[in-house]
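Protein modeling request. Please complete all fields; requests missing the sequence field cannot be processed.
Requester role: graduate student
Desired output: 3D structure, token encoding
Chains: 1
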Amino acid sequence: MFNAEYLLRQENALEGATFSRYPKLKKIKSFLENLKNPLFVRMTGSGSVIIAYYQSKKDCEMAKVQFKRKYKNYWCNTSKTI
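Delivered output (82 residues):
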């Protein structure tokens, strides 16, 4: 359907406005971007989710552990794209 190169070039136009109003969301995105090997990190739609894509299940699970350690009161889950 979409390859990684295509997705890497895409943006969410609402991120700038959302992050200026809610700087905590920008910090969360930045935190996820600085974890090991994310393919890319994006805010979905109008900001209901910030998602990090990984090619390796191991890296994804490790990121989840690190995220939950830092952001204890935030919801975090993993899923597989099919």
